[in-house]
């Protein structure tokens, strides 16, 4: 089989095997294609197919390894669980299995010729001359721990899924009348004349008498009611503190370093300037120009009306279309152009950062910190059980903290939102307490003098919270909040006056008055909006409710709405219709978007139908136990 492929296909780069699946794995996700047939525990059943625990575990760990560099090397199983990575990975594996079953039922048989052509059409796997090199293929297989049969099976399964997906999505189309109607609706613009009246433009009301103030204080009691406050004692159990009690041997540190050795190897990185042109003739002309300018590719590109793009520093796999070619060039020269599916590339290497391998001495601190964190995470459940046993045996929180050396934190009177009682007129947030929302939720669900069990927080933290005292919610005495009550009453009176004045403004505009005349007489501000769409984003100058009303009006009609600090009266000045004929680019983009959306809907509907045909059963309890143990 491989001999047949070797005679017809293009080449592979070392990391290129995974690119085979990129297009289809936008739907499937990147995953292992192997099926376990052993007696391993099953985490999911999809009709006749089963997904073994070992498969899911392997897949999740691959995803963690892929994501770890994005998080500065600090990404573990606990974070993966918090991000929902386990469920996402399992769902991707189930989705692949469903489409595998659909391909099988459709009788799809991917031929050897199709497999060969599939490899052959991948430009990233050819050398600069576009020729296949068997040695590169052998190296790629070896470096990714694959054999020939596995490679062929991988391509065949992926091709089968794509054939099913292509058949489902083939009927996706966005009718042009629909696209044009959407464009007209979304791009229609309206211009309004506005009169904005701030509440502060109204005369300040006189201070209310005692009876009115008392009535307002009682009617608006919610505004002037102090919340319930609780004084708490918090026991903090976390892996950082637990890690300080753990001693590591040199052999353990070396073993941890060796297990993560791949993370500490940085491949060669290159920075380069690139110009992509449509034809070889243009590329040759640009090269001659650049060489005449002593290698100044940017200046040559500008003179030829082309765009020069600076890329890097990047490793070879980060530029898959051209990586093999770029990493074969010498620095500082303007070599001959090479071709890809994107066009003809003229490249100048500006910097080469050699590959680097960091030693244990270089990363000892990082390795030790991660190892301690992992060991502490493993030890935490046992530690928590010992604390819980002690508390259940009658020990106080203080006694347990002294025995097991975890921290106690005194939390002063605090409400359920985290505001301290003595934090000033608007309260002051309690700070420097991890998982504060969870702590408060737990504390305010307890009875007075109650104590919570050890409760799991985030980032391998746990806590115990005890309610020491409760300050009940109560209406603050009028004497205590008199100034606040007066200010609130006056603000409400001004808002009412502004609403009445807005009705007068509306009547004056209907009678033919201009916004400028009306505004001058009332202390308001007149303006004309710029053309506004239904969804203007950051350009919105009207309250959302008023903008929505504006698109129901005919020119000359008026609407008004309140804002947080005033009133706005708007008269529709003009409607600017959107003409699809003037925006062919936007119409094409909208059509592509709608076509893709329809395609996605078809695939989703087909996937739902497959789940009806092949019921999916997952063993969530086993999955939780499995990754909790890990």
Radius of gyration: 34 Å
What's the structural domain tally? 4
Biggest β-sheet: strands ordered side by side in the sheet: 18-3-20-19
Overall number of strands: 21
Could you give me the name of the CATH homologous superfamily of the largest domain?
A: Porin chaperone SurA, peptide-binding domain
| The CATH class of the largest domain | Mainly Alpha
CATH topology of the largest domain: Triger factor/SurA peptide-binding fold
Distance between the termini: 40 Å
Q: What is the structural class?
A: alpha+beta
Secondary structure: elements and pairs:
Layout lengths: L1 H5 L15 H7 L13 E5 L2 E4 H15 L9 H6 L2 H21 L6 H9 L13 H10 L4 H22 L6 H12 L1 E10 L11 H10 L5 E2 L2 E10 H5 L6 H10 L5 E2 L2 E9 L2 H13 L4 H7 L5 E6 L8 H4 L11 E3 L2 E11 L2 E2 L2 H33 L4 H8 L2 E8 L4 E2 L7 E2 L6 H8 L11 E2 L4 E11 L2 E2 L2 H33 L4 H8 L2 E4 L15 H7 L7 E6 L2 E11 L7 H30 L2 E3 L1 H10 L1
Antiparallel strand pairs: 1-2, 1-21, 3-18, 3-20, 4-17, 5-12, 5-16, 6-11, 7-8, 7-10, 9-10, 13-14, 15-16, 19-20
Helix pairs in contact: 3-5, 5-8, 9-22, 10-19, 12-16, 13-14, 16-17, 19-20
Report on the structure:
- There is one protein chain.
- This protein has 630 residues and is an alpha+beta fold.
- It folds into four domains: 190 residues, Triger factor/SurA peptide-binding fold (Orthogonal Bundle); 134 residues, Roll (Chitinase A, domain 3); 108 residues, Chitinase A, domain 3; 87 residues, Chitinase A, domain 3, CATH 3.10.50.40.
- Helix content is 47%, strand content 18%.
- The protein is built from 23 helices and 21 strands.
- It has a four-stranded antiparallel sheet with strand order 18-3-20-19, sandwiched between helices. The chain has a four-stranded antiparallel sheet with strand order 12-5-16-15. Strands 8-7-10-9 form a four-stranded antiparallel sheet.
- A hairpin with a 4-residue loop joins strand 15 and strand 16.
- The two termini are 40 Å apart.
